[in-house]
Amino acid sequence: MTVKSFALGSFGTAAISWGILFLIINWIDPTKSAAAAFILFFLLLFLAVAATTSLIGYVARTIFMRHQLPAYRVRPSLRQGVFLGLFVDLLLFLQLERILVWWVSAIIIVLFIVIELVFISYDRNGTKNRGSA
Asked: Do 87 and 112 form a contact (C-beta atoms < 8 A)?
C-alpha cells in the first residue's frame, strides 16, 4: 500500500462513513428500528473513527517523526486507528447494554495498551533482525 493510496482511501472512507452515520442518526428512530440498524450504526462508527484517527495519527507522525520514512508511518497509524475505533464501539455497546462501569473501562484500556505494547516491541525487534538469516 502506498502512502497516497492510504491517505486517499482513509479520507474517502472517513468522509463517506461520517456522512452515512449522520444520516442514520437523523433518520432512524432507535426505539423502532431493528437490529440491522444498530449493526450498521456500529460498523459505520468504527469505520469513521478508525479512518479519521488513522489520518490524524499519520499527520502527527509526519510532524513529530520527520526522520522516519513515510511508508513506515502508515502501519502504526492504521493499527492505532483501528484500536481506537474498536475501543469506541466497545464502550458504546457496553453503554447500550447498560453494563459499562468505570472498572470495566479501565480493564479495556489496560488491555488495549498491552496489545499496543506487544506490537511496538514486535516492530522494534523486527527492524533489528530484518535482513539477517
From this structure: yes
54 and 80 Cβ atoms separated by less than 8 Å: yes
Do residues 45 and 26 lie in contact, with contact meaning Cβ atoms separated by under 8 Å?
no
Mean pLDDT in residue range 8-14? 96
| The three grid cell numbers given for residue 87, joined into one nine-digit string | 475501543
Instruction: Enter the pTM of the model.
Output: 0.86
H or E segment to which residue 51 belongs: helix 35-64
C-alpha–C-alpha distance, residues 47 and 45, integer Å? 5
Reading the block at residue 5, the C-alpha cell is: 493510496
Sign of CA dihedral 65, 67, 73, 76: negative
CA 48 vs CA 9, 13, 16, 76, 100: distances in Å: 12, 7, 8, 17, 22
CB 3 within 8 A of CB 70: yes
pLDDT per position as a tens digit, 45-67: 999 999 999 999 999 999 998 89
Question: What is the distance of C-alpha 53 from the center of its chain?
Answer: 6
- pLDDT, tens only, 61-88: 999 988 988 888 899 999 999 999 999 9
Round to whole Å and give the CA distance between 24 and 133: 53
